[in-house]
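help with this record:
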Amino acid sequence: MRRFSSVVLAIAAGLLDLVATHEPFCASACLTITTDFVYDNCSPLDDLYYACRCTNPTFLGNMAVCIDQYCKGEGWNWLDSDICQGYGETGPIISYETVLANATKYVTESPKNLTLALMNPVYFPEVGFPHAYDTVADFDGNMEDASFFGYLFRPNAL
């Protein structure tokens, strides 16, 4: 009975860990939409793409406005730790409240020409966000299914 209990506890801990490591779909959808825009001095070809963006006030403003508009204010810590510090190799970013307060002073409608660099944060049209959210959630679901049902390749097992 003890062995069964410890196996059940190990499986439960593993599932809790799996659930805890998921990225927030809503903030990830904001990131997907926000990266469609061009920002001053930030090129997608740069090695430190997010390092540039995570110090760019317009990029941060877009993320704050989107998180406020669609995510009930949740997801900024994920952006800070997993994206900006994780991929961008930057220090902690400015607080969500500070960025949002500044961004809302300058927010404009989304531009028609997406090839021009943004000068101000923008509101994201409601028609595009659900598609981005569904895509992120579907991708995460596929990744979870692959890790749960997938084949663990062991070269020496052949």
Observations:
- The beta strands are 38-39, 117-118.
